[in-house]
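Researcher: For the record, we're logging two predictions in this thread. I'll number them. Prediction 1 follows.
Model: Prediction 1, sequence and structure:
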Amino acid sequence: MDNSVISLVSLAVLFGSMLSGFATFRLTGMRLIPHFVSLILAFIFTLLSLIVSNSIIFYIAILLQILAPLTICSTICNILKTQFQNTGIYSAHLGFMGILLILAFGNLLIS
């Protein structure tokens, strides 16, 4: 599989993550701002890596795709411990983050 195909799928997952993350962000407030910023940066650099053929931009995009799911860990674990009844709201976003992490590592290994 070509790297551009994986990057395009990653871009779609990032876009879906931003949409599902917006609801999560609205519920939790400013605690998730580092995660939301990392998602936006990952989206921008992934889009740039599809437009511009530059290996530095490509690897920055992959790095941001790996960091984006990691930035949610400390905040979301705390939220899930205290507000277990709201876990359904976060499930779509956490699913997207898991998919993004696998796609990023796959893209890194194939490149």
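Researcher: Logged. Prediction 2.
Model: Prediction 2, sequence and structure:
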Amino acid sequence: MARKKRAPPDPKDPEMTDPRDEYLSRFIKDKKGKDLGESIGLDGDTLIIKDRMDFFRIPLKSVVIMDDHIQITGRVNWKKARKEGEKWRTSELDPLYVGDE
């Protein structure tokens, strides 16, 4: 007896959408309009930004979603953001990372 194929989930179904998806794959601009990179992920209440080879992790409360980009509106400690972004990259993207040893 053949099984019926299930229809793929409807992306418009409210149960299948996450409002935080709005933050993903958008360019980030500072207060002066300078491009800072692209949003590639969320981790808790932080946004992960990739700029060339650098990763940054900044608080969501420091950004606002605009029509075609994400605008930095709050103060960001970029030195700390880079350090935290590197930790995120190591734990999430490095295939040989095993955890805190």
